[in-house]
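Lab meeting, item 3. Inverse folding demo.
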């Protein structure tokens, strides 16, 4: 029996492979945590480990790519003026529940400059939502971006330490409680 070799499609496969690797990382990190074998991510993406390392030289760069996509999604939410802080935080909660392993990464690498840049980008996204909500009267005037990001951090900490089947419910219950304190309507 001969093993069937995959045809090398060359550089033209690069963007597709990158997307497949990020999608696979989302699933594998969610299933096995941040320290999951990178070989498992490559296999799930249908690419060789060489391709994985060409796109992402280390685990951190792969996790940052997943975070980047998450933040891009959140930027699209706040760009839509019809969306509310609840819409944004609903999506943040979903991302937190789906990708709690990446919270482990963020904690392990919190002093890293690139991870810090993601944190700054998240605060900027929240700031847009807070300003919009205050302008429309749906958020108490004294609530700051720091208050909202602290609330998200509290929820993320709870979710990351909870059993997978309880995460969504705990996150939603926590957000409802925090809404009262933030004066969100």
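The presenter then showed the designed sequence:
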């Amino acid at each position: 029996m001969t093993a069937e070799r995959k045809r090398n499609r060359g550089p033209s496969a690069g963007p597709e492979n990158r997307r497949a690797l990020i999608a696979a990382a989302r699933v594998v990190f969610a299933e096995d945590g941040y320290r999951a074998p990178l070989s498992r991510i490559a296999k799930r993406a249908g690419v060789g480990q060489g391709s994985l390392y060409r796109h992402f030289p280390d685990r951190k760069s792969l996790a940052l790519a997943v975070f980047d996509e998450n933040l891009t999604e959140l930027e699209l939410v706040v760009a839509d003026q019809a969306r509310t802080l609840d819409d944004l935080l609903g999506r943040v909660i979903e991302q937190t529940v789906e990708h709690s392993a990446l919270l482990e990464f963020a904690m392990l690498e919190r002093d890293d400059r690139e991870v810090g840049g993601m944190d700054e980008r998240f605060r900027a996204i929240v700031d847009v939502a807070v300003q919009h909500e205050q302008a429309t009267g749906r958020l108490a005037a004294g609530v700051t971006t720091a208050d909202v990001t602290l609330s998200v951090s509290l929820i993320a900490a709870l979710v990351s330490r909870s059993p997978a089947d309880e995460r969504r419910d705990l996150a939603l219950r926590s957000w409802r409680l925090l809404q009262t304190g933030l004066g969100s309507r």
